[in-house]
Design a protein that fits this description.
The structure holds two protein chains of two kinds. By secondary structure, chain A is mainly α. Chain A has three domains: about 45 residues; about 100 residues, no CATH class; about 220 residues, Orthogonal Bundle (MetI-like fold), CATH 1.10.3720. Chain A contains 20 helices and two strands. Chain A has a two-stranded antiparallel sheet with strand order 1-2. The two termini of chain A are about 40 Å apart. The N terminus and C terminus of chain A are likely disordered. Chain B has two domains: about 230 residues, Rossmann fold, CATH 3.40.50.300; about 120 residues, Nucleic acid-binding proteins (OB fold (Dihydrolipoamide Acetyltransferase, E2P)), CATH 2.40.50.140. In chain B, the strands form four sheets. A six-stranded mixed sheet of chain B has the order 6-7-8-3-9-10, with helices on both faces. A five-stranded mixed β-barrel of chain B has the order 11-12-13-20-14. At the A-B interface, helix 16 and helix 17 of A face helix 2 of B.
């Protein structure tokens, strides 16, 4: 040991290499310890959060239905030239597979999947399956063509081949209002059928309005809280947090009671003579905005307050001592320093809004439903997991893009910290 | 002090109360001369910062009037006063670069761009930070931030610059360096500086005059040497520099000098610092470096003393003595002046020339 330290002083390379090893070993031990500390939470998140989300999102490109029912047919279609009718073996395989899955839910699922691609396919499959199995010695090709003439249509076979891939872009494209054609080309869904882009735009727009309203209402409150003495700002803070401690459902129900035609607000307005007839304040966009702004206001006030609390009042004094009038001082010196808070608050409110479901569902009409409503619709009502997952993916991607954009902007605007 | 001719700032009977019960500033009368470096010195809560803030316009006097250049300013909002100010933690705008910080007061005054550039450049040269214009304040060291804050307060050429403990956040060495630098900038510009600090060393180093504040009243206002050598009262004596206090009673009053009988019966001749008549209590103020340690009692103004402790400080020696009941009587003596250093517990005598003992009215308890 003592010789070690002696040679170290002489700057010989050998003991330094030993030192590096020792350092690495110590570092590794520390990293392992850190890893062990966060391992339970990481594992929990993986099992209860990341994996289910990943699995759900996979459903947006997953394509198991046709593949599960018609594997042999698809195997034969693999070598098919696609220009004219498939070989007779394909008809035989289809007939035997339809016969074996006749009456099962799997066949129903596959028929539904095919129907999404080409309307009328479901009845074709069901009709054909009912006639199965074929009698011994019958030519399957001729028999199928007799059951329904559509089996002699090349496009009908294209649909089977197309829907038989393990993965499909069909749901994702539908969620973006795009149609895929038999030849693989894309086109915009005709306007009368296109709905999702509009709904996405509506989701963005409503979230933006709510975020801006929260900012306009929350900024003065946060400023007041940051400038008042501690005891008074604490009291104010309780009022800001109060809505946090009540269930969203209760608050939405309360808004319905308050805002309905015979509700408190309308009665007060009429009693004051401001209006003669009750205003329509609920089951339309006004009601959704009122309730969402109310629910999300704390998410704006808290980040703003925490940023403003850190801005010394001396900056305003300094600006005034340099000859700047009070309001201009606020605008030029105080306000720019609140931008991180404004960014964080707006982003927080905006992102929470994007996924809002209950409030628009209860307080809005059909024109106020946002993307989440359709995700719920597809999961609960039509059991179309592919569509639900595709819309979720679009929503998640939009949110992530927004977040990355914000992080970039903030990173560029902020002065490099530290000395 | 005689009244100052043509003062730039005058405070007349200014009072300030925050709670309506206690006056933090009681009847302040103060003239600031053109071009001087005036320091407001005092312990915290003495009212010095309140005075500065009233002058800057961030506090309003409860009564009285403040004039700048003969104009009453106590109702003028701060941004119209045209007074430069350096704040305690610099208050450089963190979202602006150094250059933008310096441009700010000029841009607010809507100066032409060319003139702004020239002035910013000159201000940066004055504090020798030309190459830092595009940095952000957080990227500078404490001393550099301090200099930028000073440059920003001076760049719009105010007639008066206020500083509120601007060196408090710096370490000792840098603080001493900045004291000289600020002093030199003051000398070269001829602008009037009003400086607030609680550090008496800082005040002595930099100021033309010092106003010593305590309990909302100016206790004494004078040149640094006069404050040190001739403190007007017991508070100033103890607040500025090191001070040995001995309590006694006036035995006879001879105008400029007086005789004082100490509590233990010994007698000292002292300079009269404005004490009352014979028989009244007096506090003797003695600076540690004015005391000579001698072996015997043969001579005028000598007192018996016992050595309590010796502290060796390289260039000088601090000796803690017990003198006339005061166990904390400190003597500072250069090592070279002592033939033979006394040991702890030894009995010696101290000699103090009468002109270096100041008899003052004791502080009310």
């Amino acid at each position: 040991m003592s010789t070690d330290t002696l040679t170290l002083g002489a700057a010989s390379p050998e003991p330094i290499a030993g030192l590096k090893q020792r350092l690495r070993r110590a570092e590794r031990r520390r990293k392992l310890l850190y890893g062990a500390l966060i391992a339970p939470l990481a594992l929990f998140l993986l099992v209860a959060f990341l994996w289910p989300i990943g699995a759900l999102l996979m459903r947006s490109i997953d394509n198991p239905e046709v593949r599960g029912v018609l594997p042999q047919t698809l195997a034969i279609l693999d070598t098919w030239s696609e220009d004219d009718l498939p070989p007779a073996e394909a008809y035989a395989a289809l007939a035997s597979e339809l016969a074996s899955y006749k009456g099962t839910p799997e066949l129903g699922g596959a028929a539904k999947r095919l129907n999404r691609e080409t309307p009328g396919y479901r009845s074709l499959i069901m009709k054909t399956a009912r006639k199965m199995p074929l009698a011994e010695g019958v030519d399957p090709q001729g028999a199928l063509m007799t059951i329904d003439s559509r089996w002699s249509d090349v496009d009908i076979w294209h649909t089977i081949k197309r829907t038989g891939t393990p993965y499909t872009a069909f749901y994702m494209l539908s969620a973006l209002d795009l149609d895929i054609h038999a030849d693989g080309s894309l086109s915009a869904t005709p306007p009368e059928e296109a709905i999702y882009l509009d709904i996405l735009a509506r989701t963005f727009w409503m979230s933006l309005i709510v975020a801006v309203c929260c900012l306009l209402l929350g900024f003065p409150v946060a400023y007041l809280m940051a400038t008042l003495p501690q005891d008074k700002s604490n009291t104010l803070m309780i009022f800001v947090l109060l809505p946090f401690w009540t269930s969203v459902l209760v608050r939405v129900a309360a808004w319905i009671v308050l805002l309905q035609n015979e509700g408190l607000v309308n009665q007060a307005l009429m009693a004051l003579g401001i209006t003669d007839a009750p205003l329509q304040l609920v089951f339309n966009r006004t009601g959704v905005y009122i309730a969402m702004v109310h629910i999300l206001l704390p998410f704006m006030v808290l980040p703003l307050y925490s940023v403003m609390k850190g801005i010394s009042p001396v900056y305003m004094r300094a600006a005034m001592s340099l000859g700047c009038p009070p309001f201009k001082s606020f605008w030029k010196v105080y306000f720019p320093q609140t931008l991180p808070g404004i960014g964080a608050g707006t982003l927080l409110v905006f992102i929470i809004c994007m996924g809002y479901y209950i409030t628009p569902a209860l307080l809005g009409g059909p024109q106020e439903q946002m993307v989440s409503y359709f995700i719920a619709f597809y999961t609960n009502q039509t059991i179309n997991w592919g569509m639900a997952a595709a819309l979720s993916t679009v929503l998640l991607a939009a949110t992530l893009v927004l977040y990355v954009f914000y992080a970039r902007r903030l990173g560029a605007n902020q002065a490099p910290a530290g000395r | 002090m005689q009244p100052i001719a043509d003062p730039i700032v005058t405070f007349r009977h200014v009072q300030k109360s925050y709670d309506g019960e206690n006056l933090i500033v009681k009847d302040l009368n103060l003239d600031v001369a053109q071009g001087e470096f005036l320091t407001l010195l005092g312990p915290s809560g003495s009212g010095k910062t309140t005075c500065l803030m009233m002058l800057a316009g961030f506090e309003t006097p409860t009564s009285g009037e403040i004039c700048l250049d003969g104009q009453r300013i106590d109702t003028v909002p701060p941004h119209k006063r045209g007074i430069g100010m350096v704040f305690q933690n610099y208050a450089l705008f963190p979202h602006m670069t150094v250059g933008e910080n310096l441009r700010f007061p000029l841009a607010v005054r809507k100066l032409p761009a060319g003139e702004i550039d020239a002035k910013v450049k000159r201000a940066l040269e004055m504090v020798q930070l030309q190459e830092f214009a595009s940095r952000y304040p957080q990227q500078l060291s404490g001393g550099q931030q301090q200099r930028i804050a000073l440059a920003r307060a001076l760049v719009f050429e105010p007639k008066l610059v206020l500083m509120d403990e601007p060196l408090g956040a710096l370490d000792k060495q840098l603080r001493e360096h900045m004291q000289l630098e600020i002093k030199h900038i003051h000398q070269s510009l001829g602008v009037t500086f009003v400086f607030v600090t609680h550090d008496q060393g800082e005040a002595l180093t930099m100021s033309d005059r010092i106003a010593v504040f305590d309990k909302g009243i100016i206790q004494q206002i004078d040149r640094p040497d006069a404050l040190y050598d001739a403190p007007a009262n017991a508070f100033v004596a103890s607040f500025i520099g090191e001070n040995n206090a001995l309590d006694g009673h006036i035995e006879h009053d001879d105008g400029d000098s007086c005789g004082v009988r100490l509590a233990d019966g010994s007698f000292l001749k002292a300079a009269n610092g404005g004490v009352g008549r014979a028989g009244e209590a007096a506090m003797l103020s003695i600076r540690p470096e004015r005391v000579r340690i001698v072996a015997d009692a043969e001579g005028a103004n000598r007192l018996p003393a016992q050595v309590e402790e010796l502290i060796y400080l390289g260039d000088h020696l601090r000796i803690r003595l017990r003198v006339a009941g005061n166990t904390n009587f400190t003597v500072k003596t250069p090592v070279s002046r002592l033939e033979r250093s006394p040991g702890a517990g030894q009995n010696v005598h101290v000699e103090i020339a009468p002109e270096h003992i100041r008899a003052l009215t004791p502080m009310p308890a």
